[in-house]
Amino acid sequence: MTRQLLFRPVNEGDLDFMADLFSRPEVVAHRPDPTPDSRAICADKLERDMAHWDAHGFGRWTVLDGGAPVGFGGLTVVEDADDLNISYHVHPDSWGRGLASAIAARAVAHGFGQLRAPGIRGLVRRANPASARVLVKLGFREDGEVTLHGAPTVRYLLER
Fold it and tell me: Which residues, other chains included, contact 108 with Cβ-Cβ below 8 Å and sequence gap of 6+?
C-alpha cells in the first residue's frame, strides 16, 4: 500500500533519479535495444520533458512517495494526432505496489478532466504484458500495431 503520492512537474533536480532508473537493465528490457541509458541520454530526456511542460503546460510528472521519487509518468502531445500519449515508469525498488496503475489512473483523469483530450493512447510491446495490464485495467483497448524505434508495438486507446 502506498502513502499519499505527490505528482509534480519534472525538474533539473530529477536527473540523478532518472539516470538511476533508466540505467537498470530490468527497466529497459522491453526496448528494441535494451541498452541502459547513459546519464547524458537521461539529461536529454529530462530537457525534453521540461520543454514539453514549457510548451504545453503539462507533461510527465516526477512521482514521489513519502518525499522520495519512485517514478515518472504522465501525458505528452502526440505530433500526428489529437490524442495524448500516456507513459509510466516505476523504479524497480517500488514494483509490486500498484504505482504504475496509480500513475496511469492519475494521467487518465487529468487528460479527460482538465486537458479535455479526445483520447489517450499507450504504446506497449507484447514482451511487456505487465504494462499492457495497467492500460487494460483502466479500460484501454487494443487499437492496432505500430512500429516504434524499429519494433512492433501495440497501440492501446481510451476514448472520452
Answer: 86, 120, 138, 158
Contacts of 45-52 with CB under 8 Å at 24 or more apart are: 45/18, 46/10, 46/12, 46/14, 46/15, 46/18, 49/10, 50/9, 50/10, 50/11, 50/12, 52/76, 52/77
DSSP H helix total and E strand total for the chain? 5, 7
Give 15-25 pLDDT, tens digit per residue: 999 999 999 99
Residue 101 belongs to domain spanning: 5-159
Give the type of residue at 80.
D
The total number of structural domains that make up the chain? 1
Please give the mean pLDDT across all residues of the chain. 94
Q: Residue 77 maps to which CATH number?
A: 3.40.630.30
User: What's this model's pTM, rounded to 2 decimal places?
Assistant: 0.93
